[in-house]
Amino acid sequence: MKKLISANQLTKNYNARCVVDHINIDIKEGEIVAIVGTNGAGKTTTIGMLLSIIPQDSGTIEYWTSDYKKEIGTQLQSTPFFEGYSVEDNVKLFAAFYGISLTKNEIDEKLTAFDLLQVKKTPAIKLSLGQQKRLAIIVTTLHHPKLVILDEPSAGLDPRGQRDIQQIIKRLKDSRVAVLFSSHDMLEVMNVADRVLIMHHGKIMANGSPDGLMEHYQTQNLEELFFELTM
Amino acid sequence: MKTVFVLNLKSSIKDMYLLFWSILMPFAAIIALRIFLPSYAVNYVEGIIAVSVFFYSFMTTAFIALSQRKRGVYNLLHATPLPLWKYIISISSSWAIVAIILSYIVLLFAIVINQLNFSFKILLYMTPIILIASLSFVFFSFFISSLVKNEGHLSMTANVLMIPMLLCSNAFFTMEKAPNLIQYISRVNPFEWFLNGIKSAFLNNFSIWGESLLLLLGCLAVTLIISLKTFKYSDQ
Q1: Lowest mean pLDDT among A111-115, A191-195, B67-71, B117-121
Q2: Which residue of A54, A74, A125 is in closest CB contact with B236?
Q3: Which residue of B has its CA nearest to A76?
Q4: Is the CB of A96 less than 8 angstroms away from the CB of B71?
Q5: Which residues of chain B have pLDDT under 70?
Q6: Do A76 and B72 touch (CB under 8 A)?
Q7: d(CA B94, nearest CA chain A) in Å
């Protein structure tokens, strides 16, 4: 499989504190990669560096294309939307950022697929958390990206919302879209990820398929492995 | 760029800050002057229009820019392929259009209340001055919003800059009898250039109008560069 992103020796310090410490990450075409780690492990900073929104202090990132921003979909942890804009207008606006013009029918189709049609005139910032996460994923996939990066897509959601997000990630995989997502939920990771990166104090402690890692470390489940590696 | 411009225009028109600061306040000032200082009321129309545009272009947009940054929207914008200059120019242009509409509303109200003579020539000459000045103030408001961390800081910083600009101008007091230092400040004050541009549109004084336009164009170029160079996507 072709590599979409190859990051080598990425490092980030905030003041004197090293939050990402010489890590290497590869993301291949069509694979689902999960980053797991405790709060403050460096997941969001790593994602920020891969998206070029946080500059790394050292290390390199190679993308499969020079126009990579056109080919990557992004959902940030805070799921921000433009204040004063309705759901529909936020979709139009983000489409414009990617140079796409959507018709009314196309917007309605996307909103219907994510069960948001009934709130299309509602200000996006007034949606429930689950609705905001779904809207964020619409915005993330508007431009048919080859890679989608999701920062804690299911954080704060109820079990139904979490299941919806897992299904969306699986649908992306079926469409041969690579997904990198961060999560605290080991069951979710087990259900959807092809590969897991376990981060702790800015370092990658383990990198492999969930089954492969459990076999290698002789643990019963991913959670046990996580606790073992992040003690 | 067109979609960003249209959507921002639509959202700006619905903004309550706009209604309060830039329409109701000037209306109140026009009515108050008409009641309490009827002989001076006409002299202050240009000043009221200039202040209304200045407040909207500077204060309201600075708060919106800060709020969007604090929500993390600019971080998301950063991850998209849209160049920053396109974003800033698109949304600033829509805010400038709102500023022009505001000035027309305030002018119309002043004409009705004070029974002024009106000529379309005034609008013709006033419009480019307001467009260039409001764009400059919006670009500058991006710079100010990038300097501060929260709404409290923004409010203080904006006041520290805006009040001297207003006071060192001929908007409400004449500068003729002011100390030399204040007169010098007023000559390098972009708000005074803006005010002179509007006054000259009312008085059909084309040499002052042209001079003001040129000075404001220079200001526009400088503030655009500053806003692009200092734009802050996030607080990190």
Answers
A1: B117-121
A2: A54
A3: B76
A4: no
A5: 17-18, 236
A6: yes
A7: 14
pLDDT of amino acid A117: 92
Q: What is the mean pLDDT of chain A?
A: 89
Give yes or no for a contact between B190 and B213, defined as CB atoms under 8 angstroms apart.
no
How close B165 gets to chain A, by Cα (Å)? Answer: 30
Classify the complex by whether its ipTM is higher than 0.85, answering yes or no.
Answer: no
Strand partners, A196: A34, A208
pLDDT at B17: 67
Best B76, B94, B236 residue to mutate vs chain A (most A CBs within 10 Å)? B76
SS (H, E, C) chain B: CHHHHHHHHHHHHCCHHHHHHHHHHHHHHHHHHHHHCCCCHHHHHHHHHHHHHHHHHHHHHHHHHHHHHHHCHHHHHHCCCCCHHHHHHHHHHHHHHHHHHHHHHHHHHHHHHHCCCCCHHHHHHHHHHHHHHHHHHHHHHHHHHHHCCCHHHHHHHHHHHHHHHHHCCCCCCCCCCCCHHHHHHHHCCHHHHHHHHHHHHHHCCHHHHHHHHHHHHHHHHHHHHHHHHHCCCCCC
Is B72–A80 a contact, with Cβ atoms under 8 angstroms apart?
A: yes
Q: What's the pTM value of the predicted model, to 2 decimals?
A: 0.84
How close does chain A come to B91, measured CA to CA in Å? 11
